[in-house]
Amino acid sequence: MATLNPYQPPTTRLREALSAEVGGDCWRDGKELVVRPGCTLPGRCIKCNEPAAEPMQHARFYWHHPALYLVIFINLLIYLVIALIVRRRTPVTIGLCERHRMRRRVSTIGAIAGTLLGVGLIGYGVSGDAPVVSMIGVAMLLASLVCGIVGSRVLVVTRIGENYTRFRGAGTEFLATLPAFYRTR
Ligand SMILES: [Zn+2]
Predict the structure, then answer these.
(1) What share of the chain is helix, strand, coil (3-state, %, to 5)?
(2) Left, alpha or beta for 180 (phi > 0: left; psi -120 to 50: alpha)?
(3) What is the spatial distance between Cα 122 and Cα 133, in angstroms, rounded to a whole number?
(4) Does the pLDDT value for residue 185 go beyond 50?
(5) Which of 12, 22, 74, 134 could be stapled to 125 by a disulfide with Cβ–Cβ 3.0 to 4.6 Å?
(6) d(CA 103, ligand 1 centre) in Å
(7) How far is the CA of 53 from the centre of ligand 1 (A)?
(8) pLDDT higher for 183 or 80?
(9) Given this model, what pLDDT does residue 13 score?
């Protein structure tokens, strides 16, 4: 007859912890997606959990410690050099459905068109001595860059560690299908 061992950890939790260490390479941790570098995510849209359009996309994400941004205030060039050296890289293969892939493409094309138009307006304003036109051009250029960056990115890296990379931006339904992540060390 089996006796109850009070020191035994809950088995489901132990099993999930083991699966995080031994098998699999992507998990959910609250609202965050946790992956091992080089992971191929399940063939579903990371935004809405619909079947992913083939072929899935190979993406590379970069991250460095946020404190490094302080160097920008000292010298932008020094920051860029240090960031290039110390940044960490994670390749991940991600799935997007047709709808989300198209949305991403449209925002990229819109951003490029807006940027070109902005540059054109700046040039026109400078050559035609019309400062207001130039200012509109600068505003359009900046807005296009921001919209392009925000609209085209599908995941945002929150941290790239030694073994795991964490992302924000994955859909709740997609995350719900992944095993939970438990730190085991
Ligand atoms: Zn989708």
Answers:
(1) 50, 20, 35
(2) beta
(3) 7
(4) no
(5) 134
(6) 9
(7) 9
(8) 80
(9) 55
Contacts of 67 (CB under 8 A, 6+ apart): none
| Separation of alpha carbons 124 and 138, rounded Å | 12
- Hey, is 29 helix, strand or coil? strand
Kindly report the length of the chain: 185
Q: What is the Å distance from ligand 1's center to 171 Cα?
A: 9
Residue that the structure tokens 């540059």 belong to: 119
Give the closest residue to 21 by CA, choosing from 34, 5, 40, 4: 34
CA dist 62 and 64 (Å) reads 7
- Give the model confidence (pLDDT) of 138-147 as tens digits: 998 899 888 8
Q: Do the beta carbons of residue 61 and residue 16 sit within 8 Å?
A: no
